[in-house]
Amino acid sequence: MAVATPPAVTPAGTERLDRLERMWESRPGILGWLTTTDHKRIGLLYFWATLVFFGAGGIEALMMRTQLAEPNNNLIGPATYDELFSMHGITMIFLFIIPMTTGAFGNYLLPLMIGARDMAFPRMNALSFWIFVSSGIFLYIALFIGVAPNAGWYNYVPLSGSQYDPGRNIDVYCLGIILNGISSTLTAAQFIVTIFKSRAPGMSLNRLPLFCYAMFAAAVGLLFALPSLTIDTIFLFLDRNIGTHFFQPAHGGSTLLWQTLFWFFGHPEVYILIVPAFGIATSIIPAFTQRKLVGFPLVAIAEVLVIVIGFGVFSHHMYATGLPTVGLIFFAAATAMVVIPSTIQVFSWLMSLITGTPRYRTPLLFIGGFIFMFVIGGLSGMMFVAIPLDQATTHTYFILAHFHYIIFGAAVFPIFGGMYYWFPKVTGKMYFERPGQISFWVLFVGTNLLFFPMHIVGLLGMPRRDYTYPSGLGWGAYNLAETIGGYITLVGILMLLGNLVVSYLRGEEAGPDPFHGGTLEWTIPSPPPDYNFAVIPKVRSAYPNWDGDAAETTRRLNQGVLVLEQGHEQVETTVADGFLSDVVTMPHSSPWPILLAFFLAMVVLFLTLGKFGVAGIMGILCLLALFGWHSQEPADE
Amino acid sequence: MTAAAFPRRPSLPAAWWGMVMLICSETVLFACMIATYFYFRFRSPIWPQGGVSPPELISTLVPALCLATTSVPMQLAAFAARAGRLAWTRLYVVAALIVQCGYLGFEIRDYNNQQNAVDITHNAYTSIYFTLLGADHGHVVIGALFSFWLLWKLSKGLNRYRTNATLAIAWYWHFANLATLAVVGTLLSARV
If you write DSSP's letter for every residue of A187-230 in order, what string do you get? Predict the structure, then answer.
């Protein structure tokens, strides 16, 4: 079987490797990290940044759960509680899950899986990261100075209008979300073009790994869904600051417009959160069952279909707003339809486990937990096809239980599984298996104890977003159980992170391919060299590491076929068939992305402060930064 | 020896795909604004709301049609760049830019005149009217900046990077022109 070692057989091959090393070497020190365009470094930067935001969002969740542990609790006042649940939602969605799955996992792994040396637009990739960090810092500075968003992550008008929320809180929301949206749009464009153009020769679309299909589907979702939210927030900002009337019925506007535009983004967003997690599952299951995933083409189609149908589902968030009956039925039908591609995937995962030879190591345990919780969350989601049930449970903890099973169970569990699975690839060290398995069980118990009772209190009528509740309603015991579950989940997360930190310091050498995974990242050393692949691979199947091409790779290195050691280069291929079409020079590290992101953040800051003139000057500096950016041109081949 | 052992097939460059991604995103942006316009219209008993008169046909449509014609020289510029004809590339970009800047000058003056007659804060109709128009003009400004930058780049000659840039910017103009026609069509629908 193909276990790759650095192919350095002949002196000529070694010489080529040395040249590649020099050509692709990252700049050392902090400056190297600030100016990096290497997708692996950017992926790691995303990882650490999103982990910090995950910690912040988790602390907010635990503060809320502590407040709700008993009836009539006054630990946290209503105003602070408003900011906490708003920032918790915004953080977990915009600052943790999307940037963790696409930014961290996607950035690090996508080029490695398609046999590329970097993303299609490396500087844009860096820009995307620095804008993302700016948006997070912007929102959290607002929290610390008491002007954080406080009308929930979906920020309904008229509550978020200047009449009912006159402070700067909602302006921070609008501009922070726009800034974050720019980052996600850049990432989405980057992923699609990279998948279309930067695949290794031979990787036709039917050989594209399912992880990449998932990233592609999420990117398409982001690209087409985000503008709706951007427009919505621009309208709200204009209403609040310029005096327009988009959301004011008295002047011909409509409050429902906000919800319509928001959920046109918001529901695809849910699939954008979980589809990359599907991609992680479809990577882990073949590695730990040692078989190709059952129904590969069906799963690929299903991953994309989930996103496509997701665009036709959005109004099921608005059943209680008085939509016409025809509309309700249409969106109920669309909600039912999305079950089909989801179920195809569930059966594919299960059949792969049944027909393969599963090794229940930690990553696969997390995928098992993910499937369990995804099915529960999916079943409660299916209930919303019954419109009266949806109307009855809207704004209760039942909804909260449903989407936390989906978002935590179906998105975060695979993230945890992925952390274990690719940890040896990223660090070169093996994690400790037994503590890993214990961390899974602690997290599994804690998460279910945290979220399952929410179904019950929801059906008992407990409304979400209230900072406290009276005693005597039978909600107290369930809430206490949820709070205990929250703290157990915290322990599980700390065990997981602790395991990874100790493994990094004291773990055994992992080697290039400890799990015998099927995709290309397992053909190269761990951690990957700066140039990723000594030889641009020639792909023959969807699981190229199982094709046994290591000897051929060495031969090509010695002969210098597609080594591209003469420049900072990578290949471009045709979109459908993966034929070689070009060799292009890639940019080196650059200061412009971080500078541009800084000026853009300043634009947002001064707009929030109402200093439009200064914001304009910062906008001009953005243009100058772009000018500087493009003053460097790649050399012709 | 690099990629010589592998046969090559021509395909569109990543730069073009990058521009297509921008166009997709911006198309949804305009679609959302246009949907908002009709959302208000279909919920409003009188359109335009509040006795505001609809936009004039000739002064709205003719400049937009003039702008749309610039797609032709921009596409010719892309062809000329691919053929390595630098002088023709510059000429086509300059020809398009003259019309584009003329359009922009006229529209900025017209926008201010309209704003003086009835303000963006008048009602929901004027809010979406001026926002749509402003967004469209913003895209023309960005296109003009692209074209000026391209001319500066072309002053140093042609290479693959600048050829790809010409192609991508031509496509941006195709999009901006179509967006302008869509916006103008939407706004003029108030006359129907």
Answer: HHHHHHHHHHH-PPTT--GGGS-HHHHHHHHHHHHHHHHHHHHH
Tokens 């199982």 map to which residue?
A546
Cβ(A319)–Cβ(A390) below 8 Å: yes
Domains of chain B with CATH codes: 59-191 (1.20.120.80)
pLDDT in tens, A256-286: 999 999 999 999 999 999 999 999 999 999 9
Q: Which of A123, A125, A257, A623 is best to mutate for the B interface (most B CBs within 10 A)?
A: A257
Contact residues on chain A for B159, CB-CB shorter than 8 A: 633, 636
Reference A185, options A217, A221, A234; nearest CA is: A221
> Looking at residue A634, what DSSP letter applies?
P
Query: How does DSSP classify residue A431?
Result: P
Total Cβ atoms within 10 A of residue A391:
13
Whether A231 and B29 lie within 8 Å, measured CB to CB: yes
> CB-based contacts of A226: which residues, under 8 Å, 6+ apart?
A181, A184, A185, A188, A265, B25
pLDDT band at B4 (very low <50, low <70, confident <90, very high): low
CA angle A395, A400, A401 (to 5 degrees): 135
Does A254 sit within 8 Å of B43, measured CB to CB? yes
- Whether residues B39 and A571 touch (CB distance < 8 A) is answered with no
CA distance B122 to chain A (A): 8
At A345 the three-state DSSP class reads: helix
φ, ψ of residue A509 to 5 degrees: the values are -65, 135
Say yes or no for a CB contact (<8 Å) between A563 and B2. yes
Residue A2 tokens, joined: 């193909």
CA B129 to chain centroid:
17
Check residue B12 and report its DSSP letter. -
Q: Which residues of A touch B142 (CB under 8 A)?
A: none
Q: What is the pTM of this model?
A: 0.95
Alpha helices in A117-168 (DSSP H): 122-144
pLDDT per position as a tens digit, B47-102: 999 889 999 999 999 999 999 999 999 999 999 999 999 999 999 999 999 999 99
Q: For A196, which of B5, B17, B127 is closest by C-beta distance?
A: B17
Six-digit token string for A199: 């695949």
The pLDDT assigned to B9 comes to 87
Q: Which residues contact A172 (CB under 8 A, 6 or more apart)?
A: A138, A139, A142, A147, A148, A149, A608
Tell me the nearest-neighbour CA distance from A245 into chain B, angstroms. Answer: 5
Instruction: For residues A148 and A160, give the distance between their C-alpha atoms in angstroms, rounded to a whole number.
Output: 12
Task: Locate A594 and state its tokens.
Answer: 């971080």
What's the CA gap between B48 and B130, in Å, rounded?
Answer: 13
Judge: B18–A238 Cβ closer than 8 Å, yes or no: no
For the residues A199-210, what does the mean pLDDT come to?
95
pLDDT band at residue A455 using 50, 70 and 90 as cut-offs: very high
Residue A147's alpha-carbon distances to A82, A138, A151, A159, A228, in angstroms, are 11, 11, 11, 16, 25
Q: Which of A223, A252, A580 sits opposite B25 (nearest CB)?
A: A223
Q: At what angle do helices A413-427 and A256-289 cross, to 10 degrees?
A: 50
Residue whose C-alpha is closest to residue A570's, from A605, A524, A536, A601: A536
Residue with tokens 């990723």: A532
Reported as a single tens digit per residue, the pLDDT across A593-621 is: 999 999 999 999 999 998 999 999 999 99
Question: What is the model's pLDDT at position B1?
Answer: 46
Token pair of A292 as six digits? 């190709």
Whether A348 and A356 have beta carbons less than 8 Å apart is answered as no
Residues A277 and A410 sit within 8 Å (Cβ to Cβ): yes
Q: Which of B28, B147, B166, B172 to mutate to test the interface with A (most CBs of A within 10 A)?
A: B28
Residue A3 has pLDDT above 70, yes or no: no
